[in-house]
Amino acid sequence: MPALSDPFSPSQLPQSLLPPAEALRQSPLIADLLALSGFRTLMARDGTPVNIARMMFDRPYAYERIAVAHGSADAALQRAALQLFGLYLATDPDMH
């Protein structure tokens, strides 16, 4: 079996073909790590796992976790869910 030729490197591409670095960087939906970590702690106490990275970048996942929290019997978790929901709504382009 013949070996592959030279390995590919993106640095070999002309700069005009590459998108600007800021176009490749995804912005978080919310960046309030204190609120997210508190939410995760309350959810864990209630028996439901939460992935903070997904909460920061995956709006459907975040809304699903918030809905689960809002349906909990834990009043503190319900309040945290409402607080987070407000933060997500503030960054939702479909709501403006």
Find the structural class using helix and strand composition.
mainly alpha
Helices, by number, come to: 5
Note the overall shape: elongated
Helix content: 40-55%
Tell me the β content: under 5%
DSSP, total strands: 0
Uncertain spans = none
Radius of gyration: 20 Å
Instruction: Give the H and E element order.
Output: HHHHH
Distance between the termini: 58 Å
For the biggest sheet, the summary is: none
| Mean pLDDT rating | 87
Describe this structure in words.
The protein has 96 residues and is mainly alpha-helical. The protein has helices spanning 21-24, 33-45, 52-57, 59-70, 75-91. Helix 4 runs antiparallel to helix 5 (75-91). The model has no long low-confidence stretch (mean pLDDT 87).
Features:
96 residues, mainly alpha, single chain, 5 helices
List the helices and strands and how they pair.
Blueprint: H1 21-24, H2 33-45, H3 52-57, H4 59-70, H5 75-91
Helix pairs in contact: 2-5, 4-5
Brief write-up:
The chain is mainly alpha-helical and 96 residues long. It is built from five helices and no strands.
